[in-house]
């Protein structure tokens, strides 16, 4: 389990924001740590359309396995 990342209500959460403000500083380090410690881990994410482009590319670039989860946002 990773630390909770708080995002300002004024932030525009798109794929660039997700990668630079959430994934690289928080998710990538904990993912590598868990892989080293347990041999395997997966990222659970909802693939919301607002941020999926660059984020999915970066997940693949880092070799991160994902488990899809139903999108929780309305629409």
Give the DSSP E fraction (strand runs of 2 or more residues): 5-15%
Sequence of secondary-structure elements: HEHE
Rg calc: 12 Å
Mean pLDDT: 80
Order of neighbouring strands in the sheet with most strands? 1-2
Helical content (DSSP H or I, runs of 4+)? 40-55%
In the predicted model, the low-confidence regions spanning at least 5 consecutive residues are none
Structural class determined from secondary elements: mainly alpha
Identify the overall geometry.
globular
- Main sheet characteristics: 2 strands, parallel
End-to-end Cα distance, whole Å, is 28 Å
Count the beta strands.
2
Descriptive tags:
75 residues; mainly alpha; two-stranded parallel ribbon; 2 helices; 2 strands
Describe the protein.
The protein is mainly alpha-helical and 75 residues long. It has a domain at 31-69. The protein is 45% helix and 8% strand. The chain is built from two helices and two strands. It has helices at residues 15-38, 52-61, and strands at residues 43-45, 66-68. Strands 1-2 form a two-stranded parallel sheet. β1, α2 and β2 (66-68) form a beta-alpha-beta unit. α1 packs parallel to α2 (52-61). The longest helix has 24 residues, at 15-38. The radius of gyration is 12 Å and the shape is globular. The N and C termini lie far apart (28 Å). The mean pLDDT is 80.
TL;DR of this structure?
This protein is mostly helical. The protein has a domain at 31-69.
Give the SSE layout.
Elements: H1 15-38, E1 43-45, H2 52-61, E2 66-68
Parallel strand pairs: 1-2
Helix pairs in contact: 1-2
